[in-house]
Amino acid sequence: MKNINIKDLARELNLSVGTISKAFHDSYEISEDTKNRVLETARRLNYVPNPYASSLRGRRSKNIAVVIPEVADSFFSLAINGIESVAKEKGYHVLICLTHESFENEKTILQEFQGGRVDGVLMSVSRETSESAHILNLMGNGVPLVFFDRVLDEIDTAKITTDDFESGYKATEHLIQQGCDNIGFLGISECLSISNRRLEGYQKALNDYHVRYDSQQIINCTNDAVQNDILIRELLQGPNRPNGIVATVEKLTTPVYRASEALGLNIPADLKFVCFSNLETASILNPSLTTITQPAFEMGKIAATLLFKSLEKNDFNLSKESQVVPSRFIMRGSTI
Amino acid sequence: MKNINIKDLARELNLSVGTISKAFHDSYEISEDTKNRVLETARRLNYVPNPYASSLRGRRSKNIAVVIPEVADSFFSLAINGIESVAKEKGYHVLICLTHESFENEKTILQEFQGGRVDGVLMSVSRETSESAHILNLMGNGVPLVFFDRVLDEIDTAKITTDDFESGYKATEHLIQQGCDNIGFLGISECLSISNRRLEGYQKALNDYHVRYDSQQIINCTNDAVQNDILIRELLQGPNRPNGIVATVEKLTTPVYRASEALGLNIPADLKFVCFSNLETASILNPSLTTITQPAFEMGKIAATLLFKSLEKNDFNLSKESQVVPSRFIMRGSTI
DNA sequence: CTGAAAGCGCTAACAG
DNA sequence: CTGTTAGCGCTTTCAG
């Protein structure tokens, strides 16, 4: 019933707690024989050191946090797997914290970390995040932080991103080459780095190919699915209906398909559609979906690896370690 | 790492640490005036109590764990949201631990909890789990545990499941009514509760409708996508190709669709397909997918609520609290 | 090689 | 109303 602790173990073995602790950490001060005895009895009695006591004493928690908007999203869940794979190797635990795209939540979560709950943070900011004080605050307290995917430009630390501008450009260029001359853009935020860079790529492509740019065709989607449905429908039944759409996040896929169907628009004949997405089902949608697919697992891995480097040596300068990893453009039935 | 602590605060305010602590916990012993002063300076100095010190002292961590096979799965990611919504309300943190369907991982994770890392556990067992010693061990140490979805029958605690038998039955019955007379079943484990109950429902339906039962048509899928592709292809190009399939987990959707396409089989004309799935994209697949959809969010919520009840009062008997919540059967294009 | 003891930051019982 | 103090379980000097 009662969690057995180091003292119980010591009593059991007629040793001091200090010796036990050292044996556990494989200290050179302890004889092989004693180490074995300790390890063996520990196993027998099911002794597991209390992590909070260790954290308190050692001033490091052996926990890192992953702060993300949402877990029900292929990109983030794959990234988590990447992060976890390296954390495990380092003997660290991963705390997954969800902001649900709310800036308030994000602030609260980071604020909590001020108490020393985690040794480092991996983060993708919420769609509402435009200020950086809460992050700078935490970093100022010595907690290293690495961004992945959704970054805050003004913060000086490692940022693992994909080639958002190029991808936005390529997606748009592709639509143009497929004959679209009126292309809509579905963003998710006016302050979000990824949304803006992808938008810039989109704008550049329109410009390069002399396709009309119309700010009316740029929709800022919300965090509310019902509201998004309305926005998308409005776009698709408006007087100036686009014949191509670039969407910046996976969760916009279903609404666009459904709205098209409801309005009797055929994809790709009436409307060509490209989406930034890691959906496994992209290839079996009706029609199969042309995507910009990010190396999610890899990005998580890279970000985590950098974080651990900075955890391991204090003089490691994260701000020189940003990386841009390329996305893959996968052409499928929704645009051809 | 200049994390400010309660002592610093005390010095700043010319108060004792005891007073600060009490002020923080809104003790009746402390004057309003002092409380305000404390709270105000705490905010100003960015003081956040060290959670590990509190945990150590109070012998409760204010953390619960969610032990699941995988996060890149709609059911589990939705369930996490449900769990999180109640944990937040209770001021608890959620540790998400992934077994990746490995029994070894699962054991290691639960073993770690013996140290007191979490106050309670919500769990869906791995596909490999057939023994229960590791779980009983933890529960024996006073850590309450609630199962959701994938349970271990022999363990006496609350289990939040869906009507797996009935759903398996209904799915199969539907296929039969649509004219299938040779129905395959894709399971994921021979020891997994959900897989087995769904299988039993399938068998009962075959029996009730006098449809031939052939154990060759029951495939145990693995945790390896490549291997699964092979198994599914073998089934679909074998001499005794089924004209209907019931699959027990979401991740089998893409392989089945792709294999069918590769082999020139039309869904639903040549092969009708039902899948247990919470995929948001089910309705826009080609063809849209008939699913058994579980109330994932709700299940997470129920399971978490029960766990907190048992955390709040020791005499709460979890073993009397199991619930079966109904799934929804959603007929779509893959079977009609 | 082993043991004793001083904390890590916080809470709560007890004293004033 | 506020202060003092004894630990929670563990690690880590320092002594032996």
Automatic annotation (TrEMBL), chains A, B:
Pfam family, one: Peripla_BP_3
Keywords on record: DNA-binding, Transcription, Transcription regulation
Molecular function, one GO term: DNA-binding transcription factor activity
Domain HTH lacI-type intervals: 4-58
Gene3D superfamilies in alphabetical order: 3.40.50.2300, lambda repressor-like DNA-binding domains
Superkingdom of origin: Bacteria
SUPFAM superfamilies per UniProt: lambda repressor-like DNA-binding domains (SSF47413), Periplasmic binding protein-like I (SSF53822)
PANTHER family for the chain: HTH-TYPE TRANSCRIPTIONAL REGULATOR GALS, LACI-RELATED TRANSCRIPTIONAL REPRESSOR
Protein name per UniProt: Transcriptional regulator, LacI family
Source species of the chain: Daejeonella lutea
